[in-house]
Amino acid sequence: MMDKELAPARTRHDRRRTLIGLLFLATAGGLSVYSVFLRPTYSGASLDVAEAHRQARDGSVLLIDIRRPDEWERTGIPDGAHAIDMRRPDFSGALLAAAGHDRARAIALICARGVRSAKLGERLTAAGFENVLNVPEGMLGSSAGPGWLALGLPVQHHAGHSE
């Protein structure tokens, strides 16, 4: 008699566990679909973070950290990078000034995980910048690699302003 009384409770518990498992799989699957199919791609060239750092240090590329100031404060800015928030209304002008008004200057964009830099790279190329590179690993890592911070590459403290 007790088994019959417990059966509906077990069934509800089993259903709940099944629904939670399905929800987890759907979420994980959705993230996988996003990273494989919906993740923005950049049609131009890209650099891994170690190469971006090397080229920024030797001056062959202008490395631009396009993240927000609160992100710069949390993680610092990549060593050798210029911090220019991509949301600035005058972003293109600030970027052009940092590039010495040379639209052909090699410019590498870095963000947190390579999503914003890919999108912005496409827009800048369409706007006439001739040599835009993406750093798809970003600061925090992505499917492209572990990222700037995980590799222990140097960062500069954010001084509270962008260029």
Q: Notable features of this structure?
A:
5 helices, alpha/beta, Oxidized Rhodanese, domain 1, 163 residues, 4-stranded parallel beta sheet, two-stranded antiparallel sheet, single chain
Unreliable sequence segments: 28-38
Kindly state the percentage of residues in helix.
Answer: 40-55%
Order of helices and strands: HHEHEEHEHEE
Globally, the shape reads globular
Describe this structure in words.
It is a single chain. The protein is an alpha/beta fold and 163 residues long. The protein folds into two domains: 38 residues; 108 residues, Rhodanese-like domain (Oxidized Rhodanese, domain 1). It contains five helices and six strands; from the N terminus they run ααβαββαβαββ. The strands form two sheets. The chain has a four-stranded parallel β-sheet with strand order 3-1-4-5, sandwiched between helices. α5 links the parallel β4 and β5. The longest helix has 37 residues. About 7% of the residues have low confidence.
